[in-house]
Specification:
Strands 1, 2, 3, 4, 5, 6, 7, 8, 9 and 10 form a 10-stranded mixed sheet that branches. The longest helix has 24 residues. This protein is 33% helix and 16% strand. It is an alpha/beta fold and 353 residues long. The two termini are 26 Å apart.
């Protein structure tokens, strides 16, 4: 594990001492220069995927920890096999070792976007504002997020629900390269997202959504134990469904616990159009399986005796084994991995048990 130190830090950034930025990478982090005005005050946890012999260069002036595979093996021992290798799902190791209340995670091919006026978007600040204001999962507000400046609850919205629910997840979007699956990429290889929608909304209770890990923030204390990105490296058949798996698990548990999930602002600039045929090779099992997976999550119920996120996640892993295990033996391995994840969380975060 390597470490660096910060300098010239701006004063009083939001949640400076309560938030870590987690970045999975296999390359030099020159992209941080674009983010310097926004990221420099915060602590970075960099998780290197791929060959540990490769040297990762981090620009000066950032406060960071850098973990490679050797560190993961040393810290987790036999449990390290449950952290994906050569895959961006390795980022969830950063969630394990963080000691902060909040996490923001971003991919190393994502840059600062601009709003329609040409102003740079401070994505981190918008995520923080999303997380610090309530969500409305139990009744949809037609003006979207009623807690934003200039908005409120519309006529007919029950007053008993206007206090809202704690926000567990803030899911941001992307300009330029859309986060499409391989078949859609093949049909629309040159399509780019230029549409900026100035809106934040709560995903309603009972509804699911496809979560992208490239621009994501969450309350680690509320929902971190469910933010496991699964077994999705090149040795597994369900590649590129790491963030989707986490989203489905998280949403079931948020609905059960009464937490909220927001999506919309902020935007980042996604610079990398991945090769559709390569993606198709990685995704093909997941494309077939997702119909069974989504049906499973839509029908799953958690017992009233599961009153913590950890209890919910353990119960969910048992149902994954029992029901999705019939689809393929992969899900039995995944159910085991979910339990190992909880064991690792408890070992590294004993105060949260």
């Amino acid at each position: 594990m390597a470490a660096g130190s910060s300098s010239s830090v701006p004063s009083d950034p939001l949640l400076r001492d309560e938030l870590d930025i987690v970045i999975p990478t296999a390359r030099n982090l020159d992209f941080l220069e674009a983010w310097r005005p926004f990221f420099q005050p915060y602590h970075l946890i960099i998780v290197q995927d791929g060959n540990s012999k490769n040297t990762i260069s981090v620009p000066g002036g950032f406060d960071y920890e850098l973990y490679d595979r050797n560190d993961i093996d040393r810290i987790l021992g036999p449990r390290a096999a449950r952290i994906s290798f050569k895959d961006s799902a390795c980022r969830c190791f950063g969630y394990l070792v963080s000691k902060k209340k909040y996490i923001f995670t971003v991919d190393d091919d994502c840059f600062v976007a601009k709003d329609p006026s040409g102003k740079q978007i401070n994505a981190l600040e918008q995520h923080i504002r999303n997380l610090l204001t309530p969500s409305t999962p139990f009744f949809f507000n037609t003006l979207y997020d009623p807690y934003r400046l200039g908005a409120d609850f519309v006529r007919g919205y029950p007053f008993s629900l206007r206090e809202g629910s704690p926000t567990a997840v803030s899911h941001g979007l992307w300009l330029n390269v859309p986060d499409y699956d391989a078949p859609t990429q093949l049909v629309k290889p040159n399509e780019r997202n230029t549409r900026y929608v100035d809106a934040v909304l709560t995903v309603p209770k009972g509804a699911f959504f496809p979560m992208s890990g490239m621009n994501l923030a969450f309350n680690r204390e509320l929902i971190g134990q469910a933010m496991y990105f699964g077994l999705t490296d090149d040795s597994q058949p369900n590649v590129r469904y790491d963030d989707m798996w986490a989203a489905w698990c998280v949403k079931v548990i948020c609905d059960h616990m009464g937490f909220g999930v927001k999506t919309g602002l902020p935007y980042i600039w996604n610079s990398k159009a991945r090769t559709p045929l390569v993606n198709l090779r990685k995704e093909h099992e997941g494309i077939y399986w997702q119909e069974d997976i989504v049906h499973f999550f839509q029908s799953v119920t958690l017992s009233k005796t599961s009153v913590t996120v950890q209890e919910c996640y353990i119960e969910l892993s048992q149902q994954v084994r029992e029901k999705l295990g019939k689809v393929d033996a992969y899900f039995i391995k995944l159910a085991d991995a979910m339990m190992t994840w909880i064991e690792a969380w408890n070992e590294l975060n004993p105060s949260e048990n």
